[in-house]
């Protein structure tokens, strides 16, 4: 069993040496430790930060202004839409009122038509009644006049005959 652990350790050690040899042969870029360049680049980056922050603040301000402008325009559009909706509601109420008035007027017109028809029928009946009375009165007067004329004619004829007969005798 010891032999096994030793073989295993030797294999591990050989693998590690092989890996180390390959990494040394390939060569890694050398690290440069330039402290002053790093410090200069850091200070330069640090000095550029306020201008970038200012740019970001300006961009934020512009975006905020655009948002306010959009809110204002949206508010105006909503107000106009509300006014349009109110006008539409008023128009719908007026239409409903007109329809109700129209229905009431149609019913009133129908009732007036019935009253007018009834009055026409009454007038026609009255005129018919008056015509009957006129015809009756005229017929009565004609009969009375005819009676007097007939009696006069009969008297005249009788007198005329009686004179004739008196002459003949």
In short:
The protein is an all-alpha fold. It has 2 helices and no strands. The mean pLDDT is 83.
Features:
169 residues, mainly alpha, 2 helices, rod-shaped
Structure write-up:
- The protein has 169 residues and is mainly α.
- It is 94% helix and 0% strand.
- The protein has two helices and no strands.
- The chain is rod-shaped, with a radius of gyration of 66 Å.
- The mean pLDDT is 83.
Task: Produce the secondary structure layout.
Layout: H1 2-26, H2 35-168
Helical stretch count? 2
User: Quick check: average pLDDT?
Assistant: 83
Gross morphology is rod-shaped
For the largest beta-sheet, the strand count, sense and barrel status come to: none
Helicity, as a percent range:
over 70%
**Gyration radius over CA:** 66 Å
Number of extended strands:
0
- β-sheet strand percentage: under 5%
Amino- and carboxy-terminal Cα gap: 206 Å
Low-confidence stretches: none
Class per helix and strand makeup: mainly alpha
Helix and strand element order = HH
